[in-house]
Amino acid sequence: MVARVRDSGYVGVDLFFVLSGWLIAGQIFRAMRRNGRIDVAQFWLRRWLRTLPAYYAVASWLALMAIRNSTPVLPFSILLFAQNYTA
User: Which of 36, 37, 38, 81 is deepest in the core (most CB within 10 A)?
Assistant: First the structure.
């Protein structure tokens, strides 16, 4: 049973991409129906406002856990989304 679950982990990744595509496409199609065009700036603003609070909540929690455990605090690059470039 454990091997079966372990070997089918890709299903969760596939499901994530399918649902993300469906939700984002739905937003784009609704905007096109409503306005007749896609306002890219408004789309990205709405995406950032929806995503950033959760991102910074997790980053804050990790920083608090790092302080609590006396480990190095999260690098500043995480606040700027540059952690892939500073690794």
Answer: 38
Q: What pLDDT does residue 53 have? A: 93
Pairwise CA distance, residues 32 & 38, whole Å: 6
Residues 6 or more apart whose Cβ sits within 8 Å of residue 28: 38, 43
Taking the chain (87 residues) in consecutive chunks of 10 residues, what is each chunk's mean pLDDT? 76 91 92 90 90 90 84 74 77
Domain ranges of the chain: 1-38, 39-87
Q: Which amino acid does the sequence have at 80?
A: L
DSSP string, 21-78: HHHHHHHHHHHHHHHSS--HHHHHHHHHHHHHHHHHHHHHHHHHHHHHTT-PPPPGGG
pTM: 0.58
